[in-house]
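User: Let's play a game. I give you a shape written as tokens, and you guess the letters that built it. Ready? Here's round one.
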């Protein structure tokens, strides 16, 4: 028969368990603090598009913003970065708010978007979180000087590039059933020698799967937050949404390219090894 542990051994075991629990709480608190710090430390990332991505538009500089999620201080910091970057064009790819929130601080957001649109021609599409507050978000963007493209397109001339022209098509959100490329995009025509270069704004990169019949060269997307949490030694982020394989950066899609920005905001406890970004894309 096994003897029962002595009171001294029980106390020793209890102390060890308390030490372990305290260490776990401390490590958890430190990790959460770090994740909050990283989520609020905005990076400026300049990148070059794949060669031949947009014929005739070499040198075009596009500043990409997405997924604010009510992070007004982050948007203010992004404005300062945009002022230094001097892009030819600014795009906002949706999710100004989170859909369970009220459209607060509208005047503050309008002022920040006005500062952006004063830097360069500015365009936007809506994200899935914007749909519940679509009227408010549309008003903020329009009063902020942004052209909202919701299943619509604009034809853009770039004086700095010798009046080079391209088409900019903005789609509604795929997840919310508001994506209708037939309203703003031309069918692909293999017989056409030099179709107009076309950039697509689509909050969710899954929108690419609806565009196989249409002509386009480059899609700009957000939505993924880059995965938010990237664990060391794991090839893909932990929190990818809806089985998406495109987390952040450039990806080939047939002969086309998709760029996904991690965005400047977040949802949940924070970010880990996946900082928020303002992106400046240069067309080679």
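Assistant: Ready! My guess for every position:
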């Amino acid at each position: 028969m096994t003897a029962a542990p002595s009171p001294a051994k029980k106390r020793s075991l209890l102390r060890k368990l308390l030490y372990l629990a305290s260490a776990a709480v401390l490590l958890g608190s430190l990790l959460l603090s770090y994740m909050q710090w990283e989520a609020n430390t905005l990076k400026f990332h300049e990148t070059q598009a794949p060669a031949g991505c947009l014929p005739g538009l070499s040198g075009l500089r596009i500043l990409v913003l997405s997924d604010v999620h009510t992070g007004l201080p982050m948007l203010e910091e992004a404005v300062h970065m945009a002022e230094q970057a001097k892009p030819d064009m600014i795009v906002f790819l949706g999710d100004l708010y989170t859909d369970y929130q009220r459209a607060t601080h509208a005047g503050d957001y309008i002022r920040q978007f006005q500062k952006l649109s004063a830097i360069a021609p500015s365009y936007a599409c809506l994200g899935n979180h914007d749909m519940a507050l679509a009227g408010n978000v549309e008003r903020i963007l329009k009063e902020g000087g942004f052209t909202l493209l919701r299943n619509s397109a604009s034809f853009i001339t770039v004086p700095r590039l010798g009046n080079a022209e391209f088409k900019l098509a903005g789609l509604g959100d795929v997840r919310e059933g508001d994506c209708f490329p037939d309203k703003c995009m031309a069918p692909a025509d293999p017989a056409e020698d030099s179709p107009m270069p076309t950039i697509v704004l689509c909050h969710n990169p899954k929108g690419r799967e609806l565009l196989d019949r249409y002509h386009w060269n480059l899609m700009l997307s957000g939505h993924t937050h880059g995965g938010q949490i990237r664990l060391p030694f794991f090839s893909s982020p932990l929190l990818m949404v809806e089985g998406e394989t495109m987390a952040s950066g450039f990806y080939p899609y047939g002969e086309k390219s998709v760029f996904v920005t991690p965005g400047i905001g977040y949802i949940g406890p924070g970010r880990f090894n996946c900082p928020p970004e303002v992106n400046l894309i240069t067309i080679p």
